[in-house]
Amino acid sequence: MLHYSSQTAAFLRAKPENTEVTPSPVLDEHAYAKALAEGLRVSTKFGRVDVLGPRALREPIDGVYSLAQWQSGFKLQNDRGTCWAFAGAAALEAAYRRKYGLLIDVSEEYIFHMGKAFALNRDSAGAAARPVENNSSLTGFQGSGDIAEKISENASPPEEAAPYLQNQRTLLDILPVLGFSGVEALVSQEDYDAVEFCEQHIPLLARVNARYRAAGWGSLGNNPSITALENTILADREVICDVFHKTPNIGGHVLLLIGFDRNRQVFFAKNHWGEGKFIEIAYNNDPNWQINSGWYITDVVDPTFVQSEACWLGNWRASVGDASFRLLLRRSEDFPNPGAPTKLGTAYLSDGPHDVNGLFLNAGAHLRMFIAPTTAPVPIGTLSGWQIDADLNFSDIYNAFGQAGQEPAALSRFNTRFAALFDKGDGLAWQARHGITPEAYQSIFDLLVGQGYRLTNVCGYSEGTASRLNAVWQQRDGPAWQARHGLTNDQYQSTFDDLVAKGYQLVCVSGYAENGQPRYAAIWEQRASSDWQARHGMSRSQYQQTFDQMAADGFAPVQVCGFRVNVDVRFAAIWERRPSLEWVGRHGLTASEYQKAFDEQNAAGFRLVSVSGYSDTGIARYAAIWHKDQAGEWQARHGLDSAGYQQAFDDLSRRGFRPVQVSGYGDGFYPA
């Protein structure tokens, strides 16, 4: 599993010089009172209220005590109602620095999303609310100092895994990419899920790096005494406070108390409205602030911890026997009832959405879920219905396997997609196949080669943990050729060296994964000596470095393949020395970025000569090459499922086009 180093993230997002920041909106008085009441109810239920605060460990020096030395840098919440996420993150960061000496930067975006998407709202009968059961990150607030409880139940990733969306406009700009005209277009659970679980908001990589979590929490109740607040700080615990801002903007807010001065009768507080320094709040009758609650973290978990349950959250493509459906897991437990079975999410079967209840076992590695028999709601936590048990191998967080009675069950993070190039046929016979197993590929290969066909393109890709192949053959003359598939890295290198020594040139290479290990399929032709280069197994940075160096040396890329092996992305590519050729190469493009680049290059007279889709965390990305002034009619398609590709294939074949290259890959569930 890929983890971010807790010490690599830049922790300061300081206010730029001479930049005015308008204070964030605050929570209206009615909603604020409701949040305080709910927080008190929860803390009372769990028996966590201590009106005197934890036992003091320290004594103030000359009446002053401060936890400033443990605080991370000042940040900006800007115009989003995310104050409670910032206060909770700041308390968590300080606790890790104090206990482990780690200067970490926790993702406020993830904490905010967690407090929203993981919520489970109930109707008057106690069932999950409909049509939408959880809160939305598109709406501010809906949280309070009780974030101390929530971050003790759910871990959060580092900031770089889920960067904070700096303003409400940035968040809203995701909607058009997802196909929504605006917030008013969101009406169903599926609509709100799309915002919460898309890569642009919370990347899948954030969920598999959820590692920073409180190990316990406490509450001072509402209207805590000065003594209780002081005692908590003297116990080396910051106080997450619900406060009321008395002057414009008037309303509820959450901030962090980090110290006090008895002589001056003030608390020191960390806020995120752009002050760039600690503020002061008077013990009594402060003109701006009124402290109405107090919450604190008692301990934090080991920083090597990763919360296994978080790795399950989000969308899955479930295959059980002959059935296939989408499964969305929104939460691993219910905030008011931690550790108890709950409604985990929804299974979208052919007749509509079915409630999914269940629980996690074996430290989160095992999921036991029950899909309701009908689309009617069932009581939260109902452990009856269609039972599916699955296990997640954390070295491959994209696939899970298990059983549903006697039927095997498989879960995948991806839907298979195809991208393809077609050109106008020259009258020669050709054959093409897509999505075939290695065994079927070998059988078809032997048959067609025996009939005088030569392999002109091959692409391997992953289907779950297994592999599939796409291939094109043409019945034409040409130089001697060789083809291999299913080669390990060492086997591929050995074959490559042997064939090149015999005068063969690599003309097609495809990397892919099989059971979590890299494999290669390739074609070589015995050609007159030409100036060419090929590389394989390159990381993102290695590919970029090689790409730049090849361009500087006069080499043009002629084929590129991106492929995923577990959580890593690798590249294989071929270059030829063509100093006079105009070309454009791009990689790492999302679907919308690729479409934009395609349109721009097509308008500029460039022809697409190579396209490779590949899975990158939770979405597909594209690597592509365009050459200038390439003659002949051509067509290209991308993002097609198997049925869509077959339809495009049939349509273009009738119009005289033949496939030149067919790339298979896994894509996520939402546009990107």
TrEMBL record:
The organism that produces this protein has a lineage beginning with:
Bacteria, Pseudomonadati, Pseudomonadota, Alphaproteobacteria, Hyphomicrobiales
Give the originating organism. Answer: Bradyrhizobium guangdongense
Q: Which Gene3D superfamilies match?
A: Cysteine proteinases
List each coiled-coil range. none
InterPro entries referenced in this protein's UniProt entry, alphabetically: Papain-like_cys_pep_sf, Pept_cys_AS, PGH-like_rpt
Q: Which domain of life is it from?
A: Bacteria
Q: Return the protein name.
A: Peptidase C1A papain C-terminal domain-containing protein
